Structure formats: C-alpha cells, structure tokens
Amino acid sequence: SGFTQHGPIVGNVLGIEVGDEFLYRVELNIVGLHRPYQGGIDTTRDRYNVLIAISVVASGGYPDQLSRSGELVYTGSGGKISGKKGVGDQKLEKGNLALKNCIRTKTPVRVIHRFNGLNGETPMFTYDGLYNVVDCWREGQPGSKVFKYKLQRIPGQAELHYGSETSHR
Amino acid sequence: SGFTQHGPIVGNVLGIEVGDEFLYRVELNIVGLHRPYQGGIDTTRDRYNVLIAISVVASGGYPDQLSRSGELVYTGSGGKISGKKGVGDQKLEKGNLALKNCIRTKTPVRVIHRFNGLNGETPMFTYDGLYNVVDCWREGQPGSKVFKYKLQRIPGQAELHYGSETSHR
DNA sequence: TAGACGTAGA
DNA sequence: TCTACGTCTA
Description:
The structure is a homodimer.
Chain A: E1 21-22, H1 25-31, E2 41-45, E3 51-58, E4 65-66, E5 71-75, H2 94-105, E6 108-115, E7 124-139, E8 146-153
Parallel strand pairs in A: 3-6
Antiparallel strand pairs in A: 1-7, 2-3, 4-5, 5-8, 6-7, 7-8
The first copy, chain A, binds a DNA duplex through residues 1-2, 4, 24-26, 29, 35-43, 56-62, 64, 75, 77-78, 81, 94-95, 114.
C-alpha cells in the first residue's frame, strides 16, 4: 500500500547501481533495495520455502566492521544493544536465521552501508553491491551473545570509493 | 537537515489549502504543516517566549471527537494510552501546556485529521484549517487523567467535505 | 539524550 | 500483534 512498489527482490535491483546514495530508509524501501523501515535484515523465502536474507543495512547501530578488501563482519539482530532496552542473547530466528541460511543456499545479499557524514556532511546510505555470506558464529558473554556473519563482496562489481573521495560532493 | 524545509510556522502555510491530502507524516513535516514525526502537537515560542501550539494531528491514537459543526475535542499527550506502556496522569507540560497557552494568546492552531480509509481506501491526512482553542479541562480517574481541549474552527475558511464525498477519488 | 497519535513486514 | 541498525524536535 502507499508508495511501496516492490515485493522482495533477490540479487540486484533493476535501475540501482553500486554507489547509489540515499538519504532516508524510506527511500531504500521505495526503490526495493531494503524494505524494513528500521530492521537491519530484509528476508523472504526461496522456492523451497527456506527463509533467506536478501539485504542488510549497516548503519552503525551495531558494531559491524567493513574492510577495504570487500569483507564485512555483520552483527545479527535482537538481544542487548549497548544501553538500549533489549536484554539477553540473540536468537537464531527471523533475520539471524535467514542470514545463516544464505550460506548453504548461496543467496547473494545486497549490502547497504551508512556513512555518518563527518565534517558536517549529510549522512548517506550507499548501495555497496552483492555479497556472499561465508561464515556465521557467536560471540560475547552469556546474556549478551550475538551472532556474527562474514560477508564477502562478489567480484566483478563496480569498485567502491570510500574515504577521502566520499568527502567531495 | 535533510528534506526539512521549514521552521515553526504560525497560522496558514503558504501553498497549503484546506482539504489538501497527505499519505505520510513525513510529508506534513516537509511542507511545514506539522513537524514532529510522531508527536501529535507541534510547538514553538511566541514573541514573549510563551510556549504555544501551532498544529495538532488527530490520528485516532487518542479518543478525539470531531463534530460537523467545526468543533473538535482533542486529547492531550502523554500518560496512559489504552494498552500502551505509558502509565499515569498526563502532565501540563510541553504540548499540553502549549495548547492551553493558545487560549490566552489567541494563537490559531492548524488541525490535521487522519481518515482511516474505510472500504480499502488509503488512509489520508487532511488539512482541516485553522482553529481557536477555547477551553481546556481534565478528565478521567486518578492515575489516568488526561487533558481535553475544545477547538473551534475559525469561520470564513473553505468548507470541509467529509463522509460520502471523501469516498470518491 | 529521550520522547513521540510513525510504518512496514513477519 | 509485535518488532525493528528510524527520525524528528525539545
């Protein structure tokens, strides 16, 4: 209903290219890149009814790590976020389960990364391209265990230009 | 920052007419009709630094009453909403205080009303025009007292067409 | 820093 | 019905 124009899309979204920038989460929804308004992991079911993840947003709400070599360590959803109300271990359900299932189903996952906009820049969401989920493990003390996922950027996509180049607009 | 284009505006907003419709709260923000994303009462301070209300949204989250004679009974903000987490009496602060102050400062308040979209219609926010706040009182049992405000539509504005006419689009 | 009549999807 | 890496203003 409303402006929403897309159902769940696996893989690249027609008309959206690596490096495309967005100001608000609602824009990601409208173009079909990532549908949840707040959630970090968008999910659907594949032809065998297996829950899979189709896109993730790394906004800084969790301690994710992005390396220049195209490797991303993404933190699962739920559980205790620093200072926030949530309490307890993350569970292997919903988005967390979906992301894990991407390993064996070899489902490519769209990665959207939020740059915080240093030096008074406007924060932007940037489409980083397709990644494969290659590993999944748990970290943390009992009561605050989280899931971690290693994602590797699929080769052959347009290069990303981070760092100083993103400062020029 | 971002798309926000307006500071607080008292009275009518240039380019917005009675009956104009909007799909999302963010649109009310962008055009300057009502800035808060969730809050029902938008406030600012007048030239004497008195806190005043400049617009309210009646979305159905509280039991408001709109009569065909241009009279609206609006419920204050805070306290216990049916079933929600909030608990206790509403306080005469922030938006509630601002709305009360509109009585003595004779500040006109923009009213935006949300129609729920019966028969599969898309829910819409509609600009209802300017109202005067003419009365304020408290209602309810101790522990769940709320503020009520009587608003009267300022005469001479374009008529509103509710009911059957809003079914045709 | 926290609160608020938000939204979409599961 | 509930959750979710939202987003604004005070």
